[in-house]
Amino acid sequence: MIKGKSEIQDTGLSSKYQTRTQRIIEKDGSFNVRKTGISKLESFNLYHYLINISWPRFFILALLFYVIVNLAFTVFYVIAGPEHLGIETNEGVVHSFVNSFFFSAQTLTTVGFGRINPQNFWTNVIATLEAGIGLMVFAVATGLLYGRFSRPVTNILFSKNAIITKWGEDQTAFQFRIANAFSTNMMEAEIQLMGSWLESVNGAPEIRKFYSLSLEYRKILFFPTVWTVNHVINEDSPMYGKSLEDLRKSDAEFMILFKAYDDTFAQTVNARYSYTHDELVSGVKYRHIISIDGTGRTTVELDRLNDFEKVEM
């Protein structure tokens, strides 16, 4: 364990806050930071957006794009004359439009069933252009799908509450629990814990300070079950002498960075999380959620990750 009250200056987060702020790290691990001064176009990256959005939204956008492109080329075919595609125009405008749309879809996907085909110069030009665009669009779509499937994904579960519990005979400890919800194998898991709160030095206005909180175990070799992360609140701890009320008044937040090597992706994966002062519970301890059945197999009840019970402090 690393001892000593260590203030962190290089967090990458501003320490100039002199008022209470919203939580710095959101529940999904993103930073609660809004950037201004540049246009949305400059800050927007289409590839990053399509890689990071949810799967349902990705497929909805892909379907909308597919339909819009086909509708656009359908209009071109109708303007060029659906009769030049071999479509019977005597059955009405709707019939011509629908069949032109189907031909567009076949051309874009390079299927080409053959019943309808371009029969003059302009319809051939439009079909050629659409076929070329279709090849590029599906190449990009393939790359996006590969990028979404191949990027490392974690599902690290954090207990809903962090706790302050009894430790030893006359000490307390700050604890929280984490677990890997996936069936992947993780090794060399590592945690960094940072506490942040408002402080006033020599009567000066309060500013936000960041402190590194030492851990009983900062790194473990294997991470197949549950890890109870433990910071002992002794004389060397920045939390020493602070009650829950003190942490509330100072707008405390505890930020976590988790890193581990994942066998499935053969890469290092990470997760971020934080607990605010109103997510701390004192005078409790976590309940055991690991059991061994009659065959000697270990079972972890992840739905009870946040279960705790009262304890005498």
What does this structure look like?
- The structure is a single chain.
- The strands form 4 sheets. Strands 1, 5, 6, 7, 9 and 10 form a 6-stranded antiparallel beta sheet that branches. Strands 2, 3, 4, 8 and 11 form a 5-stranded mixed beta sheet that branches.
- The mean pLDDT is 87.
- The chain contains 6 helices and 15 strands.
- By secondary structure, it is of the alpha+beta class.
- The radius of gyration is 29 Å and the shape is elongated.
- The longest helix is centred in the middle third of the chain and has 30 residues.
- Helix 2 packs across helix 5 and helix 3 crosses helix 4.
- The chain has 2 domains: 186 residues, Immunoglobulin-like; 110 residues, Helix Hairpins, CATH 1.10.287.
| Mass-distribution shape | elongated
The count of strands amounts to 15
Strand content: 25-35%
Q: Radius of gyration, rounded?
A: 29 Å
Q: How would you characterize the largest beta sheet?
A: 6 strands, antiparallel
Helix proportion of residues, in percent? Answer: 25-40%
Note the run of SSEs as H and E. EHHHHHEEEEEEEHEEEEEEE
Do you know the CATH architecture of the largest domain? Sandwich
Which fold name is given in CATH as the topology of the largest domain?
A: Immunoglobulin-like
CATH superfamily of the largest domain: G protein-activated inward rectifier potassium channel 1
Averaged pLDDT: 87
**Low-confidence spans:** none
Helix-strand makeup class: alpha+beta
**Number of helical regions:** 6
Q: CATH class of the largest domain, please?
A: Mainly Beta
